[in-house]
Design brief:
The complex is a heterodimer. By secondary structure, chain A is mostly helical. Chain A contains eight helices and two strands. Chain A has one domain. In chain A, a hairpin with a 2-residue loop joins strand 1 and strand 2. Chain B has one domain. The termini of chain B are far apart. Chain B is built from three helices and no strands. Classes of the chains: A mainly alpha, B mainly alpha. The interface between A and B is large, with 38 and 34 residues.
């Protein structure tokens, strides 16, 4: 039980931290370029909307029978987690570009500067909408994780705690440094979140069908270890394929010259 | 109609993402697990093996596309 609780908080924390860093970059770019009032109102409204989504769906999901809930939520989480893990492995293997907060920040600033400034009722609705959309879309993944983890484990407050801690931490650091948080190892964190989501997804979906895991909740650690090793192995294979392909392309170009 | 279509596409992209075969494979593995659960309550390995195979196959397809 303790293992699953720790992993629950850790997964919610890491997922929330990654998404908060990305949302922070956008909010910073819009705020610095177009002013803070409308930007912060947009970001704040999105955060409240997400909190309302969790508050509305959490109790409703908790009413479902636990086995049906775990099959449904576990399957969704597994499919969602595999998407994260697949992208993280492709990034680490060199087949997908790593996210660059500086480049993203500069692009968002340029776009925010290029858009005309029109005030309605004292509000810059462009800044409001951009901040709302950015925070809402990044936060929706966190809300999804909090709801699925929280209901399946029977502890939404614990998942909210993990996600909330990350959000507060990113906000404090962001306000202090006042620039994109490029030092955060985002891609490594996404890899870890992908492995954790997939681990919980496998565990809950299978448990919901009536199958017993050896060692009960302790099986989570076993799945986590297996998935981590397999994923690292796949990264190594992809890196080797990528290097071989680059070498082949270079030698072909050399022969053509 | 356009609104509903966009709504459905958004959630499809949000949950399923780039490779629908992975999602379909997970559902098939779950059905197999549920069927086996009636006779063998220790068939936990089915989903684990399915996930490893589906992930590796999906990555293989992606690397082939990238060449």
């Amino acid at each position: 039980m303790m293992t699953s609780m720790v992993m629950l908080v850790l997964a919610a924390f890491l997922a929330s931290a990654v998404e908060a860093v990305e949302a922070f970059t956008l909010v910073l770019a819009v705020g610095v370029t177009r002013g803070w009032r409308s930007t912060l109102m947009g970001a704040g409204t999105a955060t409240l909307t997400l909190a309302a989504v969790i508050a509305a769906f959490g109790p409703a999901l908790a009413l479902m029978p636990i086995d049906a809930l775990r099959v449904m939520v576990g399957t969704l989480l597994l499919i969602f987690g595999l998407q994260w893990l697949r992208k993280a492995i492709l990034r680490a293997g060199g087949y997908k570009a790593l996210r660059d907060e500086d480049a993203y920040y500069l692009a968002e600033r340029a776009a925010a500067r290029a858009a005309g400034l029109t005030l309605h009722a004292g509000m810059d609705w462009y800044a409001f909408t951009l901040a709302f959309k950015g925070v809402f879309l990044e936060g929706l993944e966190v809300a999804f994780i909090v709801l699925t983890f929280g209901t399946s484990q029977g502890s939404i407050p614990l998942a909210v705690l993990g996600a909330g801690l990350a959000l507060v931490l990113v906000m404090i650091v962001g306000v202090l440094v006042h620039e994109p948080l490029r030092q955060v190892p985002e891609n490594t964190m996404k890899f870890a979140v992908g492995v954790m989501l997939t681990t919980f997804g496998i565990f809950w979906s299978v448990e919901g069908t009536g199958i017993e895991w050896p060692g009960a909740d302790g099986a989570l650690l076993g799945i986590l270890v297996v998935l981590t090793l397999v994923s690292l192995g796949l990264v190594a294979v992809l890196r080797w394929l990528h290097a071989r392909h680059a070498l082949h392309t270079a030698s072909t170009a050399g022969m053509g010259a | 109609m356009t609104y509903v279509k966009h709504f459905v596409l958004f959630w499809y992209d949000f949950i399923v993402g780039d490779d629908w075969i992975v999602a379909a494979g997970v559902v098939v593995a779950l059905i197999v697990s549920a069927a086996l659960a009636r006779r063998d309550r220790h068939a936990w390995w089915v989903m684990l093996v399915a996930v490893v195979v589906l992930l590796a196959a999906s990555l293989w397809r992606e690397t082939r596309r990238s060449r």
